[in-house]
Specification:
Purple Acid Phosphatase, chain A, domain 2, 28% helix, alpha/beta, binds fe (ii) ion, five-stranded mixed sheet, single chain, six-stranded mixed sheet, 255 residues, 6 helices
Length: 255
Amino acid sequence: MTRLLHFTDMHLRWHQPGSAANPKRASRDMPGALDRLAANIAALAPDILIMSGDILDMPDPVIAGGSPDGRPHDAWMADAIADFQLVKDWFEATGIPYIAVPGNHDHEGAFAAVFGGPPEPRDIAGLRFFSFWDRLAADRQPHRTGARRAMFARALDAPEHDCAQIHIQHYMIDPPTFAKGWHYQYKGAAAMKRDIARSGRVRAVLSGHYHPGSLVADDAVVHSLPPAFCEAPHAFRIYDIDKNGVDVTDQALDR
Ligand SMILES: [Fe+2]
């Protein structure tokens, strides 16, 4: 059996000033929440840790190359890199293998400067992990294109990847979710779901982005999106995976 611990949408700010615009997102409490999560990790003993993006809450103007206030863009970027380093140091201190991917509130270049990338498939504890650093299209619906799309096709079809897989990305494939005027699932998500199921290779598709969370476990593939870690009760999920399937358990720092 392999045990995964998955959390998402932390929206941390520590070196960066301020907090997420939405007051439910407790950006400045997240370093303390990570300390509490570490205590849970010690008790739950997962084989791997997964963080599916929006690690930080970087302001949109900073990600676009500007600044939301009078501070220079470079000062914001330096603070964001220090925040990514804080999170990386926390992962390293757990002593457990981990995979993190950037979300739409993480500047991809700053993320890569700290965590490395672009990602390659990794074999950990009997599973092959594929990370997809996908992006939002101009209409803000996620899409999988270019090198990410090619890696997706190879994962599902190439003979060298004929093994049990976990797919990790910020955006969701299933269920189709429309809220606050936006599509949260990928363009072409129904076809992506069909291709994944047909491959027979993928055990779980682990995502973030839609803060209320979701879970689809109606066939051999689990599509899981834990509620955002930045919001009370600071949820995360455990997956116990063996030949018979995936057992999902909801957890939270505040019970
Ligand atoms: Fe988010």
